[in-house]
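Deliverable D4.2, example record:
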Amino acid sequence: RQSPPDDRSSLPSQVDSPLEGSPCPVPLRSASFWNRQPRSPVRRKQDISTNTAAPSLPPTTMRVGFLGLGVMGKQMASTLLKKGVEVSVWNRTASRCDELVKAGATALSSPAEVIDSCTVTHGMLADPAASEAVVFGDNGVLGAVRAGKSYIDHSTVDEATGMRIFEAVKAKGARFLAAPVSGGWRDAAKGELLFIAGGDRSLFDESTAEGAGMACMGHKHWFLSDSPEGAARGKLMLQIMMGSMVGALAETLALTERAGLNPAQIMEMLNSSAMANPLCAAKGKLMMDQNYAPNFQVYLQQKDLRLTMALADKLEMPTPISAAVNAQYIAAKQMGHGDSDFAAVRDVYNVDKKK
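Output generated by the structure prediction step:
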């Protein structure tokens, strides 16, 4: 039985640099951090009941862990620090912990130690391989997870990877929630991420309660299904739209220039029309300025489109638009833009530019 998605709003919100603080409205918590960078049938039944008001979390000394201090993970960790949370960190590249440690964090030695010392641990890894490595690898999550422990993975992965982690964690008597995020590092730094979740419902309810981890890191939370498959699929739907919109914008501005028109005027027209949206306004400016400092990188957008196409293939549905856009992001990677902001897909059209 299905009902509308669960849309949760968090309370006060909050990459790699300043950790300016704001007072935490809840009791002090401790977060720990570690970094390291398929075929299960879809569960048709979904529990997507609506709760617009998050329940209050009672006072507790619960420790919160976090695995992954990349561009996004570090900002999510920083947000917890900004909200007054006591943080313990470990990172494969020790230097990535330095700023957090200076801000009051403490280092731990492995994913297993983080899990062992925390009631709830969050993860934010780059791709399916990294997500599995942190769980199944030496001194990984499975080395310490057990009854009374919970693991939440915010990485964007395919549903098969999510299910493997879900089943492995569940077999240890622990709880698992897949909760990929939508938003860039700036949103993470402000505590304004969107969370699309699937898995253990009780863990979702607790983690989105006032003052809990997901409530601190984001302002919207949806529970799509009782397995990670719903979360994985839901997140990919957003990535189709985002990648396609920015890809189409790149093509529009490239043709604008080729046609001898003023890109700034065309952007003003778009921003004044029914097609106006914050994403295109921001990425259009970056394209015109040729400023590709990363917010959300090309390689991540292309990875998400690749996962989308794998899902479409599994469901035997043609996705020609996604396929065409995916090819453009691949071309951008081949030009050396893998770590650039995905607005750099604009440069793909400069290859045969006429003088």
